[in-house]
Amino acid sequence: MKQDIILAGVGGQGILSIAFVLDIAALREGLQFKQAEVHGMAQRGGAVQSHLRLADDKIYSDLIPRGQADIILGVEPLETIRYLDYLHPQGIIVSSRNPYINIPDYPPLEKILATISQFPRVKLIDSLSLARQAGSLLTQNMVLLGAASPYLIIGEIHLKEAINQLFAAKGEGIVAMNIKAFELGREIVGQDD
Fold first, then answer.
1. Which of 9, 102, 163, 183 could anchor a disulfide with 15, C-beta 3.0 to 4.6 Å?
2. 149, 3, 6, 151: which is closest to 82 by C-alpha?
3. Burial bucket for residue 130 (CB in 10 Å: 0-12, 13-18, 19+)
4. How far apart are CA 187 and CA 181, in angstroms?
5. pLDDT tens for residues 96-120?
6. Which three-class secondary structure state does DSSP give residue 121?
7. Which CATH superfamily is domain 2-192 in?
8. Is the CB of residue 47 less than 8 Å from the CB of residue 38?
9. What is the pLDDT of residues 31-55, one digit of tens each?
């Protein structure tokens, strides 16, 4: 059993928090993982992506070959497009439909979403609206993790335990808000299927 996941977004959107949750949850699940990440030039607003490989056996490389990603989890739609050539033909894209416009020549959103939608398995999520429902726009990353969770080889209980571990130092309210965001993302995908 193995799964290759590309996480894509921009600095400040919580890509590394998603990676942390997946890594900790994978360990709780008894899986091995390897992770490689690239940070943008700026802490906020620069491109950030992470290759995350999960398996129940030895993993030899931390980079996912093009055409082999099982999941592309995009927190920003333009960044999602950058990694479409990594997607396996049977892979799935789970992406926010909400842009983070940080460049003057940001392409028209309709074109970006149309490009993503050309793939056979796509879940475009209004992460902004669901994060508002959860109580903070900062929870968009957990909304998207929740939306991707039914397609992961990691159980929901381990993902929630890892979210709790990540945010525990910030207090019960922050933990609850992020768990709620995760659940809202998971529910919205369940309604789409």
1. 9
2. 6
3. buried
4. 10
5. 999 998 889 999 999 999 999 999 9
6. coil
7. Pyruvate-ferredoxin oxidoreductase, PFOR, domain III (3.40.920.10)
8. yes
9. 999 998 766 544 566 788 899 999 9
